[in-house]
Amino acid sequence: MKLTIAVPVYNERERVEPALKELLGTTFPVEVEVVVVDDGSVDGTWETLNTLSLPPSVRLVRHDRNRGKGAALRTALDTATGDVFVPFDADLEYDPADLVRVLQPIRDGESDVVFGTRAFGSHTAFNFWYVVGNKALNLCANVLFNCYLSDLETCYKMARTPILRSLGLRSNGFDIEPEVTAKLLKAGYRPYEVPIDYRARTREQGKKINWRDGVRALWVLLRERLRR
To answer: How many domains does the chain have?
Structure first.
């Protein structure tokens, strides 16, 4: 088994090096490739990436302009050579060691799709409305698709690569998260959930998602549920 870890980055000059250091310092029980997609950063992120001493298992890709997280993930998915695919945000909110736990149900043959789910304790969310919005989206998805998911917006959506490629993903922005979830559910997949650690950063630290992305996520869930 080979795991492709996709790392979309946009204006993360200060965080991308320590994030990659943590990721590359994690011991995985399978072969791993890392695909870093710089989404048209203008703060020197791309230049920083090219100064790092990276192993051959890491590939750097650059968009000539900012196209969004979804576009970066789709680029990584198109070039992935692994049997299993998972995103990893280079913002230090997620612990890369948790990827080993998320991978285990796939290795054990228990599921082909695994989500790492966040608990949102008091020290893990930057504000009240962020958590409320997340829970509201989960409720909508559970009602629309008759399932029970606790964190559809998690970054850690791990699945066998052919499954993700079969979904026909088209989102360019943060709406890639609800699109992946909705299309997996509609295709009959029920993600296996594994608890993970999470430490949200603040707006001042570079948090990019906002309430408009929540509204867009709701629209994507409705669109995919009603799509023939």
So the answer is: 1
